[in-house]
Amino acid sequence: MSAASASGRSVTVRAPAKLNLELTVGPRRPDGYHDLATVFHAVGLHDEVTVEPADDWEVVVTGPYAELVPCGADNLAMRAAHLIAEQATSSGPARITIDKEIPVAGGMAGGSADGAATLLACDLLWEVGLSRGELEELAADLGSDVPFALAGGTAIGSGRGEQLVPVLAPGRYEWVLALSEGGLPTPEVYAECDRLRAGRRVPDPEPSEDLMSALRAGDPRALGAALTNDLQDAAFSLRPELRGLLEVGLDFGALGGIVSGSGPTIAFLTADVEGALDLSVALAASGAAPEVKRATGPAHGVHVVRSPSLRSL
Ligand code: ATP
Hints:
Elements: H1 3-6, E1 11-28, E2 34-53, E3 58-62, H2 76-87, E4 94-99, H3 110-125, H4 132-142, H5 146-151, E5 154-158, E6 163-166, E7 173-179, H6 186-196, H7 209-217, H8 220-226, E8 228-229, H9 232-238, H10 241-251, E9 256-259, E10 266-270, H11 273-286, E11 291-297, E12 303-306
Parallel strand pairs: 1-8, 3-4
Antiparallel strand pairs: 1-2, 1-12, 2-4, 2-5, 5-6, 7-10, 7-11, 9-10
Helix pairs in contact: 2-3, 3-4, 6-9, 7-8
Bound molecules: adenosine-5'-triphosphate.
Adenosine-5'-triphosphate is lined by residues 69-70, 74-77, 98, 104-112, 114, 145, 183, 186, 261-262.
């Protein structure tokens, strides 16, 4: 344990992965982004970020995906720490340790989760005292998916995904996540989506009524049937084997399946914990997916695990 953590001057915050239960992609905007109508859903697969004073700025990543994560200035956690340092009267270099459980470049917004966790952790470490609204603004500056990692739960996202409205969704859902080797870079998937839709009129995106009523009813069967993702065809075009993986999970009895965000993770919805256990065993035994995980949603947004002054959003 470092001197800083031993003296209690370290803060640890957890942040959840997300799925998109629906991702409707509008036309490409002049600034290169796309307007979205999406329904974010946080699931119980977490990264844990610890910040503590250090002699130099440093990002250390641990866990099974550590070697896939950049540790320099482009790490979203490092960028988040600098954003908070700009607001602090007294800050200083920090070591940021990310215990990474969320697959990298898997369409589950792990980098955004780390950014959101670091915003809150540094705010506490340096006793900046930002309001929730101020943290949300910094989160939106950091990236489109970062505000949702702060919020958690289930929420409709519009704009680039950063404008959120919480959804009252009473159910709990059991997911099986089929991970793939190698990530899919989000910009490439959007570019492929634009290529596949070239020449077609693309309507402005709107959330679907079927999905909303499934969520209001807390009905996993209706939810399974209502999952949609406009980036799915693009992900299949770039990684054709994903189509087969989706079919295998559905054949094994999933209520529905969807490419998560820009992929390549595929999320399967099951009826209950037993169904999730059965499906994860069947998928792992079939060899169709190199790695299979289970997660329950909705999960809370960022929350403090350890801090000299405990605080949650
Ligand atoms: P997106 O949020 O763009 O949909 P994703 O969920 O598919 O992305 P992430 O794991 O968030 O994937 O990472 C996308 C890329 O961001 C990685 O390939 C990596 O180069 C970079 N990155 C920057 N900071 C981090 C971080 N803290 N954790 C993971 N990746 C990071």
